[in-house]
From TrEMBL, chain A:
InterPro entries in alphabetical order: DUF6691 (IPR046513)
Name used for this protein in its record: YeeE/YedE family protein
Short name of one Pfam family: DUF6691
Keywords, ordered alphabetically: Membrane, Transmembrane, Transmembrane helix
Residue spans crossing the bilayer: 38-57, 82-105, 111-131
Record bears the keyword Transmembrane helix: yes
Automatic annotation (TrEMBL), chain B:
Keywords tagged on the record: Cell inner membrane, Cell membrane, Membrane, Transmembrane, Transmembrane helix, Transport
Protein name per Swiss-Prot or TrEMBL: YeeE/YedE family protein
Main location as per UniProt: membrane
Coiled coil: none
Cellular component terms (Gene Ontology): plasma membrane
Database matches in InterPro entries: Sulf_transp_TsuA/YedE
Source species: Aquimarina mytili
Lineage: Bacteria, Pseudomonadati, Bacteroidota, Flavobacteriia, Flavobacteriales
Protein family according to the UniProt entry: Belongs to the TsuA/YedE (TC 9.B.102) family.
Spans through the membrane: 12-28, 62-81, 126-143, 163-184
Subcellular location: Cell inner membrane
Membrane topology: Multi-pass membrane protein
UniProt superkingdom: Bacteria
Length: 137, 185
């Protein structure tokens, strides 16, 4: 039963990513050229509404559908890992034009070469795991 | 119903992404796509090489099912919910991209030179896809999250680490488009 819920949320998210054009390489290029409001509108409205939703959840101690408290564990304090990791991610995001969600939506949409990007992203994650202790965090 | 077949405007898409994050919170889960890449490493046996991958992947099974859904969602959206998926870009961008060799700008969803099967005959473009993927996978894990975990849920939770990461995403993206693209395209 729960698997069906996860699958449905995924399908819904995949449709949004494709139909919003957030999965389009061109839209990411246009965003970094500041040539269109589209991507800023998507991210901005998602974050703005997200702030309201999460603040309401916290203020009213909203419970999950299963009755458990909703807690969001804060990320560890650091500067370097977020800044350096972020820059590396951004370089790849602009080059491949896809981040880890849209990659999979594009796979479903039939853009076969995205498989190369997905496999490389898995390999990149593996490299991070191997080099992790040598990097500043 | 015609609106379904057109690209969805930002003021529809953005709030729907928030809804996805909200639904995941309400079933006791957290929104984050890139952690699946780590789970996939574990499934491939990466635990033998680094203890970063030594965890019970079954605790992340739900997220892999979400990813399976995203793949199906991409298929449904492209096959049944789109008549013409050409992205209506800023005309100045179309001219700019075509001058860089992206002939399909304005007529397609993805650039042909990188995402049609022709790429398999172009070592340079194939290498760019590999490099892009490597950077995304490495950077997402180093930063502890990607666009969904940091930009959407992290900023939504007003976390300083996520703000730093998102600033990093933009610094990286701007460097790539404005300084590295002129060297490679």
């Amino acid at each position: 039963m729960r698997s069906i819920i996860y699958l449905s949320i995924g399908i819904f998210f995949g449709i949004i990513l494709f139909k919003s054009e957030a999965a389009s390489w061109f839209r990411i290029y246009e965003m970094f050229q500041f040539a269109s409001f589209h991507m800023y509108g998507i991210i901005g409205s998602a974050v703005g509404l997200g702030v309201i939703v999460i603040q309401l959840i916290k203020r009213y101690s909203v419970k999950s559908f299963y009755g458990d408290p909703i807690t969001i564990t804060p990320k560890d304090r650091s500067f370097s890992r977020y800044m350096f990791g972020g820059i590396i991610f951004g370089l790849g995001w602009a080059l491949a034009g896809a981040c880890p969600g849209p990659m999979f939506a594009l796979l479903g949409a039939g853009y076969t070469p995205i498989i190369i990007v997905i496999l490389s992203a898995i390999l990149g994650t593996f490299l991070y795991g191997v080099l992790k202790d040598k990097l500043p965090h | 119903m015609n609106w379904v077949y057109n690209p969805w405007p930002w003021y529809v898409s953005g709030p729907l992404i928030t809804l996805v994050m909200f639904l995941l919170l309400m079933i006791g889960k957290r929104f984050g796509m890139s952690s699946n890449l780590r789970t996939m490493c574990t499934l491939c046996g990466a635990g033998k090489t680094s203890d970063f991958f030594r965890f019970d992947w079954k605790t992340q099974r739900w997220n892999l099912i979400v990813v399976l859904g995203v793949i199906i969602g991409g298929f449904i959206a492209n096959t049944f919910l789109s008549k013409d998926s050409a992205v209506d870009l800023n005309p100045a961008m179309i001219i700019d991209l075509r001058s860089k060799g992206f002939e399909s700008a304005g007529n397609a969803y993805m650039p042909d030179i990188l995402f049609s099967n022709d790429v398999f005959t172009s070592p340079k473009n194939l290498l760019l896809l590999i490099l892009g993927g490597l950077l995304v996978g490495f950077g997402a894990r180093y930063a502890g999250g990607c666009t969904s975990g940091h930009a959407i849920s992290g900023l939504g939770n007003l976390q300083l680490p996520s703000l730093i990461a998102v600033i990093g995403f933009f610094i990286g993206g701007l460097l790539m488009i404005h300084f590295i693209f002129p060297l490679i395209f």
